[in-house]
Amino acid sequence: MSSHDPAQDSAATSRRSKITPERAQELYAAVLDLIRESGYEALTMEGVAARTRCGKSTLYRQWGTKPELVVAALHGTRRMLLPPIDTGSLAGDLREAARAIGAASGHDTPLSHALSHAALQSPELLCALREALILPQIAAIEDMVRRGRERGEIAPDAPAAEFVAAQLLGVMRARPLLEMEYADEAYLTRFVESSVLPALGLGAQAAPSGA
After folding, report:
1. Domain 6-76 part of CATH 3.40.50.170
2. Is 206 within 8 Å of 91 (Cβ atoms)?
3. Which residues does UniProt assign to DNA binding (predicted)?
4. 75, 131 in Cβ contact below 8 A?
5. Can you give the residue ranges of every domain in the chain?
6. Across 117-206, where does the E strand assignment appear?
7. What is the reported pTM?
8. Considering Cα of 97, then 102, then 107, then 108, what sign does the dihedral take?
9. Distance separating alpha carbons of residues 106 and 197, to the nearest angstrom
């Protein structure tokens, strides 16, 4: 019976820790860029190695498989998708959210679309995609709605309130499929003005003074 050698674990840990946090960020960025460019299925460890001038064996030692590398990239590059927004009114907040989401749509939408099919086959990848791109935006929008409800701008039981995040994020993903264009700032602002605010009982007259 073979005995466990702690020295082997130490050596393996040392090999895995050779990549610095800064280098890891470069690798993660390259992984997500390759997915945006060619899709998840076309992504290979060889392609990542070539793009980043990193040894393929290093990638395998550090992450093991392509799905593990993609999950690590999603978790490792999480960013503030919506800046802190508090204009003092729900209508103002949603207009600013539309501008911020629209400004990032050309960057985030291709990644979401490219990963969607693979994520449905992999619970771990789906979880990482939701945590990195989707849940932070949902939480930020729901916080805006909560503040608007607390200020009395919308009724406590306003039926449209629970669908605001789904409307904004859903149309961002749907427009490329329906019209072959990203839901940019101008489009999402018009969408908020014509669909989201009226459904909440708000309108152009609800804009903050000076807006």
Report:
1. no
2. yes
3. 44-63
4. yes
5. 6-76, 90-203
6. none
7. 0.73
8. positive
9. 24
